[in-house]
Amino acid sequence: MKNTPESDTTSEGIRIQAAAQYLPQESDPAGRNYVFRYRITMTNTGTHAAKLLARHWIVVDSDGRREDLRGRGVVGETPRIGAGETYSYVSYCPIKTTWGTMEGSYTFERDDGARFQVAIGRFFLVPNARPIELESQSH
Fold first, then answer.
1. Among the listed residues 43, 51, 117, the one whose alpha carbon sits nearest the alpha carbon of residue 84
2. pTM of the predicted model, to two decimals?
3. CB contact set of 77 (below 8 Å; sequence gap of 6+)
4. Most distant pair of Cα atoms in the chain: their distance
5. pLDDT (tens digit, 9 = 90+) per residue, 68-124?
6. How many other CB atoms sit within 10 Å of the CB of residue 38?
7. DSSP character for 31?
8. Beta-bridge partner residues of 58
9. Which domains are delineated in the chain?
10. How does pLDDT run across 44-61, given as a tens digit for each residue?
11. Which stretches within 1-139 are classed as H helix?
């Protein structure tokens, strides 16, 4: 496993690319608050459309504190991604240490009602990560 601020994982025909960047202007090291921005790009490499229903994030800081975050959709949306289509979004994650990790899964549903889990590979929240590109890569 690479210890990088990026990950690229494909499961169930959905490719998840993640990248993170430290935001010093939003962080308060004296108050033990470090803020990271991350971009997720989902590409449906399969042959059937799928709708994202839910997320489960596992965030672990460098002191080993784990936080499980669950919720409906992403950034207030539940996108339907057709075969060959891409969906991207940007969000934020505060942690109490200078570095940590994020990983997890998304729950998707096919048009026939079948639900499945898609892995989000582990990526590192590190202060020396290069800036992420924020432009959408959607079709």
1. 43
2. 0.91
3. 52, 89
4. 51
5. 999 999 999 999 999 999 999 999 999 999 999 999 999 999 999 999 999 999 999
6. 21
7. G
8. 68, 103
9. 6-125 (2.60.40.1470)
10. 999 999 999 999 999 999
11. none
